[in-house]
């Protein structure tokens, strides 16, 4: 059952590049609004208990997610969807796996570590191959774009590891339903901060932004 639920996530994430339109500002703003509204509706039906500490951590995690997703949206314009998705996914797999092993003690046995690190090595090879460009004159620019994507992916690493941190160090009874709403509030806050700092407040009055709410859903 857990694997089937994971497949639903994969489909949802895979549809995002197909549904977002406009500039990265339009995309991240619409997605933040759509995700927050969806999480609020879920909250109304589930009514999970409110833990202030959990909410604060979840809001921070959501804000950090904004950095990762914004990096993806910007990278779509720089290196394309077909170049961004394999790289971003690879960076997330390697980073999240290392966090799980080094911080949370996952892969406890020697055989698990051997198989796991062999798998990560294969992912790294895939990342290197995916980063290759046919245009020999664009090496420096391509490298900078990849480094930008890697730097912003750190936001995804933090976002992914915070729920595990909450359940293992704060409150073992917390479930995904308990922190999805504050997490999406963090996403909304993160997008608002970005829009204000980038002086793009006009996006809130443009139709393409509200169409991108579908991606947040």
Description of the structure:
It contains nine helices and no strands. It is mainly alpha-helical. The longest helix has 32 residues, at 139-170. The chain crosses the membrane at residues 28-46, 52-71, 110-129, 141-159, 179-197. Pfam families: Sugar_transport. Belongs to the GRP transporter (TC 2.A.7.5) family.
Short description:
With 217 residues, the chain is mostly helical.
Radius of gyration: 18 Å
Helix content: over 70%
Low-confidence stretches: none
| Major sheet characteristics | none
Number of helices, counting only DSSP H or I runs of 4 residues or more: 9
The secondary-structure element order is HHHHHHHHH
Pfam families: Sugar_transport (PF06800)
Main location: membrane
Organism: Candidatus Lactobacillus pullistercoris
Transmembrane segments: 28-46, 52-71, 110-129, 141-159, 179-197
Question: What labels describe this entry?
Answer:
mainly alpha; 217 residues
